[in-house]
Amino acid sequence: MFSKACEYGIKAAIYIAMQSLQGRRVSLKEIAEKVDSPVAFTAKILHQLAKNDLLVSTKGPTGGFEIEKERIDQIKLADIVFAIDGDSIYEGCGLGLKKCNAEKPCPVHDKFVIVRDELKLMLQNTSLYELATGLEVGLTFLKR
């Protein structure tokens, strides 16, 4: 459903949020290792998230990535998805057809609109804090 970059971006943001809640700034190498992503690819993804003001990047020997504690609850999954994949997940045909809309629907159009709307609602209502604290208590996992 999400691009590979978006999947890694979500995992990385959750890991950074977890560490930020503990007052830690984390290195690119550590993040890439924890989310099982290539370092160069992770760097590109984190740059996009920083460019969209979702995390803070600090250079230098004590540098790394962090999220301001007070912002962790304000950042929603929708913000991360939009920063990496844009809004394409909310558009397009469920079957991948070029011409599909309410006036000329594909066979799954009406059902897909419902699923897409529910996904959008979930992404807009799920905070990074909720995910980070869920991981801390063992309710969810970063790696398979």
UniProtKB/TrEMBL annotation:
Domain of life assignment: Bacteria
Gene3D superfamilies: Winged helix-like DNA-binding domain superfamily/Winged helix DNA-binding domain
InterPro entries in UniProt: Tscrpt_reg_Rrf2 (IPR000944), WH-like_DNA-bd_sf (IPR036388), WH_DNA-bd_sf (IPR036390)
Protein name listed in UniProt: Rrf2 family transcriptional regulator
